[in-house]
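Let us work through a complete example step by step.
Step 1: write down the sequence.
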Amino acid sequence: GSESPRSTPTPTLRKTEEEEDNDENVSGGRGGEGGAVGEDGMELAPTLTDEQRTQRKVYISKIAAELEQNVEKVSDAGAIPSLVLLLKGPEAEDSGGKKKKKKEPPMPPGMADCQMYAAQCLRHVALFDKHHNQLRSAGAIQPLIKLTESKIRETRMHAQGTLMSLGVDNDSIPEMQLYKVPEYILMLSNLSVLDAAREANRQELEEAAAK
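Step 2: predict the structure and record it as C-alpha cells.
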C-alpha cells in the first residue's frame, strides 16, 4: 500500500534570554522557583519574597506616577473635549417622516479606530477623580454609554472601564441613569447603587411572599 505522508513537526519557538528575564521579573521566579504545585500538577502562583514585593510596589508606583503625569499633560493641553468629540463620531441625520427618526450615517474610514483610542485615553483620565468633572462637562457619558454596544471588543472594554471609574463618583450617577447606562456598570462601580438594588430585590421578595 502507499505510505501515509509524514506530518511536518511544528517548530518550537524559544524565548530569548531577555524575554525569559522579563517573565522572571513579572512572575517572581524562573521555572517555578518559589511557587507551589497543586494536586493536578499545575504550578500555582509563586510565593514572593519581601524583596520581590518591595520591587513590585516600587515598579507599580512608578507606572502610576508616569500615568498621572501623562494624564495631566492631556488635561492641560485641553484635549479632553476633543477626545469626547472623537467618541461621538459623525452626527446622525434626520431621515424625514412624521416620527423624524435619526438615521445613523456611515462610519468614515478610520473612525472606529479613533473611537477606540479616544476611549482608551479617557479610560486613563477617568482613573483620577479630579478629572471627572471635566469629563462630565465635556459630555463624555452619553457617547461612552453608546460605545458599550460597539462591535469592537476593545472599544466596548474601554468605554465600560471609563464609565466604571466615573460611576465611583456619586455626582456622575444621575447623568448615567438619565442616559440608561447598563445596570451592571453602576453595580460594579458604586456600592450605594448595588445596596439599593439589593434592598429593592429584598422588598420585592417580601411582597411576593406576603401575597
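Step 3: interpret the result. Residues 31 and 108 are 49 Å apart (CA to CA).
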